[in-house]
Structures are given as structure tokens and as C-alpha cells.
Amino acid sequence: MSIQIVPAIILVLYAIITIGIANIVLRKKLGSDHFLVAARALPLTLVVAVVLGDMVGGASTVGVTQRGFNFGIMSSLYSIALGLAFFAVASTMAARFRRLHAITIPEVVGRLFDAKTRMTAAIVIGFAYFFIGITQIMAGGALLSPLLGIEVKYAMGIAALIFTLIIISGGLKSIALVNIIQVVVIFTGMIVALVASLTLLGGSIAGGFARIRTELPAEYWSVTGGKNPLTISGEIIGTVFTFFAAQAAITGLFAAKDTKTAVRGTWIAGFLIMPIGMCFALLGMCAKLHFGDALPYGLSAAPAMMLEHSPVVASIALCGLFAAVMSTGPLNFLAPIQIFIRDIYTVYINKNASDKKLMFMNRLLAILLLIAGWGVAVTLQEILQVTYWAFAFRAGIAVILLSVTYIGSRFVSEDGAFGGLIAGVVMFAIWELIGTPYGIHVAIPSLSTVFIATLVISKFRKRKHELIPEVREALHPGK
User: Fold this and answer.
1) DSSP label at 381?
2) Number of structural domains, the chain?
3) CA gap 338, 40 in Å, rounded
4) 475 assigned to some structural domain
């Protein structure tokens, strides 16, 4: 492999600019509250940037292109499911999350249930986010490897280093500011990449589309792409439910300046994310037609296709891809940091930690998590498969949150929620160990188990403490 000089220079300059913006925030010497939730003052544009930034990342771009390369148009279902998830949260919990004045999802769980359920939720969400963050390192490596002419494992290390620098620079505020630029660049790069690729294949957009329509196998245009419908339906269900426990995205709602901003930001983000999947699925199909089987596993399909164009076009397209990875990677690793600091460290380890100590712990954890994430990333291959797996693992949190909100706290007890989460994790492990029978995605049995176990246990283990007035008012204002 050889280095692509012009695109590499432009991408390096772009990385310097984004990290520089993050460091502008650092110079303001913000405290841990700014670091974690931006002092709960984010306007609509920054809320959209944070919420969208969590989901428009390596999975939505590199991952969808990889699956488009291997299976066709069905890979666009990922972004469609994410859009539906955004709409579901906007319609149900967005305003409630903001009114609860929390910093983390486990903190919300603690207020609705008890300390042991909060701890369980923290472990589940933190573990899931660690693996979602790993997929962003994989995506970053897939992008940087052909660009810099280095092995993927070293490219992943560079991606992890950039994530670390953005996180330790200024926390959530810096990520939100950077993400405004990232979102604009993502959409620009996406459109440029698809238009250029279709034109490369067929001499025009229509000509390129005609070629992928007629020359690729018919299954590439199937909704299932030859995959088991039970697998696909489980992936969609898990994706919709997982957003209720998407700490990084929900952070934007916690940090919104008011409930109206939180709800509107979620709706807007949902509408923006849906077309992204279609564009990158088509890009993957273009790569399949252009490269054939020359790209093992299709992990590098997106950057490889972009590098087939002129240096200027390639640079614009690659910056969009880079922006997608950079908008999500730091958030995915900030989320478990938030959870550990807020739900474990300050609750069980050091209740009286100074703000300086908390900032030190925030940055130390960022470095340790990114090093560990890089170590795991180099052993994995398919981005979306890992992402769907992590989504399903944490989706049970949504079941207990929605149950206590809509069924009522009288019928969903502390022990019921705790037992439901544990039962869901056990079912998840069993289903994976026995090889996902009949192709049923693990999200289906694990979510069903959480719901049934929660209600059954709550029937025999009644609620010990009623919700405090402030929490009741946040869930059902005016009642």
C-alpha cells in the first residue's frame, strides 16, 4: 500500500482543526459539570449535533457500506431503524429525561428503582458502549489504512489516539461544537461520494444506478439480502429499544437548555439520519460492482471506493467519512466514563471527590478505555454485527424505563426491574452460547425475558418505596 498524499494532507488538517476547536473549550477551564453535561445549556443546534453525532458514526457509514458491499440495499435498514428509534424517544421519554435533571441513564434508573438496579444498569450500558466504541476504532482504522498506506491495526491505533485527544480536551461541550462541523461535512462528503461513484461506474448518476441495478445479484435489492428475516427483525427491534439507553445520545437531552429543545432536537435528528443509510448502502453496492471480491470482508469498501476518484473529490468524501467516525467515537467512550464517574466512583468509591479529582479521573479513564478498545478492535471484522450485538445487550434498560412510566410504579417494583435486567443478561448469554437457534436475533428473546421477568417478579415482590414527588412530576407533569 502507498500513501495518498493529497487526501492525507487534507484529512490531517481537518483533524487538527477539530482538535483545535476542542482545545478552545479546554482553555476556559470548565468544571466536571461542563465536562459531562455542558452546564445543561445546549441550544437546539448543539442538541441535534450530540444526539445525531452518537449514531451517525462508523456503523452508519463504514459499517453500512461494508454490509451493502456484502448483502446489498438491506444494509440501509440500520439507519431507518435508528430514525424510528429517535421518533420513539421523542414521543415518549425525551421531555421526561430532561425534567429528571440527571447526567446518566443509570442515574435515572436509580431514581425510578434503587441502588442495585442502578449499578446493574451502569454495568450493562457501560459494557455495551465499550464495544460500540470499539466499532468506531475499527471504522477509523478502515478509513486511515488505505489513506496512509499502513496496516489496519496501526491505523486503528491512530484513530484511538484522535478520540482520546478530543475527549480529554473539553468533554461534552467540545464534542458538541466539533459535531456541528462534523454533521455538515458528513452530509457533504456522503453526497459527493455517491454521485462520484455512480458517475464513475456508468458515466452519469443514472448510468451508474442502472449498472448496479442490473449487474448485481437480485438478492442485493431484497429487503432481507438473503439473510434470515428473524435475524433482521431482531436487529431492528434491538436498535429501536437501544436508543432509550443510548447514554451518549441521551446526554444531549440531559444537557438541553429546556424540555422543548430536547424533544425538537430528537425529532430533527431522526429525520436527518434516515437517508444516510440508503446513500452508504448504495456506495457499498458500487464498491461491490467495481472491486468484486478484491476487498476481504468489505471493511474498507467505503474508503477504497472514495480513493478511486480525483484527489479533490476523494478528499471531500473522505472528510465526510472521517467526520462521521470522529463525531461518534469520542461520544461512545465518553458515555462509559460518565457512567463510571457518576454512578460508581462518586457513589461507592469517593463520595467527596473534588472537581479537580473528577476531571483527572475523567481523563485517565479516557486514556485507559481507548487503549483497551484498540486492543480488542484489531481482533474483530464486521462492524454492524458487533454494533447490533451491543445494542441488544443494553436494550433491556428501555423495557424497565417504559414499563414503570406507562404501566405504573405500582406494577413495576425495584426487585422486578433488577431481576428483569439480570434475567435479560442471562438469556442474552445463553442464546449466544447455543448459537442463536433458528436465526432468531438475540434481541428478541432477551427483551422478552426482561419484560416477562420484570412483571412476574413485581407481582410477588412489591415496591418498597414510592417514587418521590419530584420524580413523579417529571414522569407525569400536572398529575
Assistant:
1) -
2) 1
3) 15
4) no
pTM of the model: 0.86
Residue 182 lies in a domain: yes
- Roughly how many angstroms between the first and final C-alpha of the chain, as a whole number? 65
> Could you list the residue range(s) of the whole structural domain that residue 66 is in?
5-381
For the chain, give me the number of helices (H) and strands (E)? 21, 0
Whether the Cβ atoms of residue 11 and residue 322 lie closer than 8 Å to each other? yes
How deeply is 411 buried, as exposed, middle or buried, from its count of CB atoms within 10 A (0-12, 13-18, 19+)?
A: middle
What is the C-alpha to C-alpha distance for residues 307 and 22, in angstroms, rounded to an integer? 29
Provide the CATH number for the domain around residue 161.
1.20.1730.10
DSSP letter, residue 218: G
- Asked if residue 176 belongs to a domain, the reply is yes
Half-sphere exposure of 204 (CA within 13 A, CB side): 3
> Is residue 218 classed exposed, middle or buried when 0-12, 13-18 and 19+ CB atoms within 10 A define those classes?
exposed
pLDDT digit string (tens) for the chain, length 479 residues: 556 677 778 777 777 776 666 555 544 444 444 444 444 567 888 888 878 877 888 889 999 999 999 999 999 999 999 999 999 999 999 999 989 888 788 889 999 999 999 999 989 998 998 999 999 999 989 888 888 888 889 999 999 998 887 777 655 555 556 667 777 888 888 999 999 999 999 999 999 999 999 999 999 999 888 889 999 999 999 999 999 998 778 888 888 888 999 999 999 999 999 999 999 999 999 999 999 988 877 888 999 999 899 888 888 888 888 878 877 787 788 778 877 887 888 888 888 888 788 888 888 888 999 999 999 999 988 898 899 999 999 999 999 999 999 999 999 999 999 999 999 999 999 999 999 999 999 999 999 999 999 999 999 999 999 999 999 998 998 77
> Which of 70, 52, 139, 59 lies closest to 318 in space, CA to CA?
139
Transcribe 308-351 into DSSP letters.
TS-HHHHHHHHHHHHHHHHHHHHHHHHHHHHHIIIIIIIIII-T
